[in-house]
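Section 5.1 Outputs to date
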Amino acid sequence: MKLSPILVFFLFVQLLSAQIQDKVDFVRAEVLIEPTPSENRINGSVTYQFDVIEDVGSIYLDAVDLEFSSVSLDEAKIDYDYNGKKLTIKKKLKKGDNHRLKLDYVAKPKQTVYFLGWKDNVRYNEQVWTQGQGKYTSYWLPSFDDMTEKVEFDLRITTRKDLAVIANGKLINGGENWNDNFTWIFDMRKPMSSYLLGFVIGNFEKETIRSTSGVPIELYYEPKDSLKVEPTYRYTKQIFDFLENEIGVAYPWQNYKQVPVQDFLYAGMENTTCTIFSNQYVIDSTAFVDKNYVNVNAHELAHQWFGNLVTETSSEHHWLHEGFATFYAYLAEKDIFGEDYYYWQLLETANALQRFSGDDGGEALRNPNAGSLTFYEKGAWALVMLQNKVGEEAFKKGIQNYLNKYAFKNVTIPNLIEELEMVSNTNLDDFEKLWLENPDFPYEHVLSFLKEKNSSIKTYFELKNRMTEKPENIEKILKRAWAKIKSNQLKENLVLDYGDKLSVDFLGDIIKSEGLKVRQAIILSQNKISGELQTYIEGLLKDESYTTLEAALYRLWTDFPQNRSKYLNETDGITGFPNKNIRLLWLTLALVSPEYNPGAKPLYFDELSGYTGSEHHFETRLLAFQYLNNIGGFTDTTLKNLVESCNHHVWHFKKSAREILNDFLQSEGNTARIKSLYPLLSQQEKQYLEKTLGE
């Protein structure tokens, strides 16, 4: 792959830096931190043990915007240089020596550590959590942005006694009482890259299960969610056992924990032994049908081998993390939900990759700047085809050799290819050119593979071809084929594609005889509900699916205004997914239905407006802002909440909030309304508004 001159220079600088730091080996870190959440502050101390591999004149650590009160080497204070990003100690150290470096500091991190709920006066929703993906742990701990520096990190975290602390490693019984605080002590036994450090502080309880191999698996939850533990963590033991067996290498750490947190930046993060994930996956059994934690659960667990046990040297090799985690997560879902589910999911991702490749030319898997769709989904597809090329037995053996050989080390793509070529006696040059270096997605290639592997996908394309040739016979073709179709995935996709072209009688028969997801496809395929179909769609309001119910309520309310009160009465009190999708829709529809409970409208409005507050999840807040904007319902309080959201730590929520604010400011008089809020705003919020208003 040809690299740009800028990228070549960047890699050269990184290489020089790594060469200098490679002269020492940081082996162990003893970390003590005491967060003060009300001040977004951490008092910290870390002691590193390191060995000198070659004579060296200086050592450094990455440390972003920290305040150091003391730095000592082997118990003696030592001078250091600090530029706000790196701390450098210039001292001649001799090969073969080992040393202890101790740093005392204060961190006020602007990212990586997030303090939520400490200023909203809502008891027991306080949380502190980290997200250090890539190279951001240095915002709260002097450490190493370079993933090739692997250290055994042992953590001590001091906080209020009534809060739980979850972090990397094994919690050691005991601890130290400090007045109203308690110090939690965690022991790691193996080295890891510092970006995989993570901790959570909050009001949590846990259930502990064990894998068949005996590994403790701790499942955390907030006390209010005790009834959601089973559906949230459903299949966890099966996933763990499957991955250990399928990968063929024992889980490499002493335990495993999963913790759901508020307003997490992503779906989940695979900190070593301690996955942190979004509490939007804390769901009931009804939500499980449409939105569950199974894929994220399996993906983050697979990272404990691919990313944590063996770690890329640089982003050019990021496929070795995300492609593998996505691939093994799909295999775990195949084990749970069956082959049909697996192959249809692969088809869905292939279609997404084809659209992306067609619009923007695609991205090569070895492109260090590629996006998530490439690293995750194209990466998974590359492994599907690699396994198919070398055979399942050789693939599994090659992966075992790769993981065992490079355990607790860093890897490149050639390391993997070498192991697979060796066990399979296959030259993989053509594979690398097609899947790793080619920016395009070989759609026709994978389509042939899917049709060969899955009969329902083959039938799907055969039917589509016939209906394209004779569009006037769509229903006749489907009716003839329908009774012979055994795949619910096939039926669901056919209805999604052609549901708006089918007769009421045929749709009615489907609603009466087919499963939940096929019935759901009917309401999702309809642009307008006819009077003849009305009764059938009304029946969908009783389906145990929040996606179906939301779509049916909105469609019926829109298309049959004379029955709005009836539909609202039937769905009153239903919350929906964790983002409260149905309740927020219901409140909005109730407010704009003049005839519906006019005396209760102030209560409905207060409830809808209340969901814009910072104590709620950003997904809930965004829905509430969007609905209030649509009905012209912003009050001074909700506008203040909107301005506050424009500086939120979740970038896509921040972006959406700014777009809503800009839309609001287009109307006459609204700029004055926003300016009147200035006395209620923080300095950061005022600065953003001044910039937005051009002042």
